[in-house]
Structure formats: C-alpha cells, structure tokens
Amino acid sequence: MNKSPNLPISRKDFLILAGLGALGALTTTQSLFAQKPTHEINMNASNIPVTTLRTVEADGAKIFYREAGPADAPVLLLLHGYPTSSHMFRNLIPRLAAQYRVIALDLPGFGFTEVPDARNYVYTFENLALTVNAFVEALNLKRFAIYVFDYGAPTGYRLAVAHPERVTAIISQNGNAYEEGLGDAWDPIKKYWKDPTQANREALREFTGFEGTRFQYLHGTPDPMQVAPETYWLDTALMQRPGAVERQLDLFLDYRTNVKLYPAFQAYFRKYQPPLLAVWGKNDPFFIPPGAQAYQRDIPSAKVVFYDTGHFALETHVAEISVEISNFLKKVSNG
Length: 335
Description:
By secondary structure, the protein is of the alpha/beta class. It has 13 helices and eight strands. β3 (75-79), α3 (93-96) and β4 (101-105) form a beta-alpha-beta unit.
C-alpha cells in the first residue's frame, strides 16, 4: 500500500475540491469525441443525451442519482464501487442513453447520497443491497440490466439472487464473484478479516487517503494522463467528511460476507444463466483476470473482454466499453 499524506481540509477547500466533479461533467462532451473509434456513430452537441441529477427518498435516505434516456426505454442500472460514486459513469451514461434509460445512484456512504444520523445506518453490504432494492422500488423499476463494478458486484448480485425475475442481463466491469479473482492487493484486508483487531483496522486507514485513492485510479494504466485528476481528488475530498473513513473501514471488514456468498452468486449464475458480459481492466491488482474468466465456468455463453488498463477501466476505455455494452444489450433484446 502507498502511504497517504496528512490532508487536513477546510470547508472552503472541500467545496473547491468537490467542485472539481462539476468540471468533470463540463468535460464530458470533449471526452465523448476523444479517440473515437471509426465504427462509432458520430454525434453532435444537439443529440447528446442530457444527464439529469435527481434525488429520491428510499430506505430512510435521500438517494442521489443520475439519469438519462427515454423514460420508456429498457433500463440499465449502474452500480459503482469503492471509493467512487455515480461520478465514475459520467462519460458512459450519454453514450448509452440514446437507446436505454440509464440510472446510476450513489450508494449510502458514497458520493452525494445523504443518510441522516437518526437513521442509525449500519454500513454492511447486506444493507447496501436492501437500500438499492428500496431505490429500485421507489422508481418502480420492474426489470433492468445491471452494470456492476467493484463493490457494486456483491451489492447487485445480492439483489439478483433475491429477485432473479428483475435482472435481464449483467455487465461486470472488474466486479468479482470468485475467490480466484481476488488479487494480492487484498492481503492486508484479508488479514483484518482473519483478525479484526484495532491494529489491523488502523493499518488500512492509509488506504483511504489521497495516495491510496490515486493508486486505484492510476495503477495499471499505460498513460496516467488519460485519467482525469478530478476523479481521485473528488473521492479524496468526499472521504474527508465526518465519519466517512470509519464507514469505509467497516465495509472493508464486511466484504468478507461477500466472499462467503460467492457460492450463492455462482449458484444463481448456473440456475438462471443470465446474459453476461465481463469487461475487465487486466492490470487491476484487486480483481484479477481469473475472476473474469471464471464467469464462463458457470455461464458458458458469457463474453469476456480484457483491456490494457487498471481498476477504473472506464477512465481510459469508455469508448470501447460502451460499444461492447451497446452490442451486448442489443443482442439480449433481440433474443
């Protein structure tokens, strides 16, 4: 793990750093046209779908989410991971929203979702899944495909196991469901699982700082300049909020419950054979390629595509990944 610097932050500085997220939105149009493959349809500013920011009350929380696309189109639900939020999908959403109703929420403890102290929310993956289920019901979403990344995978798979009739397809982007998919970068967290002492908890605290967050974005990326710096700065700024780090340390410990559920997720794959596309940054030190390949063991029809990048593959390969997703979902809709 990389050492993180001491980053005391004032309210003024926090607002400045959080404002970098808005800059990311302003650069979306530029990102859409950067390094565009020749097989992609040309777009101009007049027909790029607009992403709307919304909130909804669900499970005692005010859930922040981004939405774009026709209200009557097939739904694609995007579930982010650690340490980010729906902001990670800012460049993907407009690429898919011409054909799909694309919805990306901020999980409790992340981004701009607000959980009142009086809610006494316990930050476990079981509770994250229950909140997502409440969100889905609040929006009256009956059937949808899911895009799962990192923490979004065990959250989304819990939802799929509980309501298999709702999930029409799965896109897994470095979203793991197999023990062989856990890389060596998990070793310090596994130590905490095995022996949940305060000392082992404190050893993980540095991972929540600036250098730990930046490492997740840049490690395995051939060209770090392809990754917008506001991504890891925004995540770092939001981590400075009171109680945020403790919530993340709680989730580090609770991730062990996901590993125990891997057999249940795999049984769901075998029984229901959901259409599945795995798009994977092959240089990810946390969720390694064998985790992507393992999907084909339980779902023989699953398609696996690797990219020469790291954990946050959308930062470097959003054009290629969006084309794969579009073709995949079109095939699913055509039966």
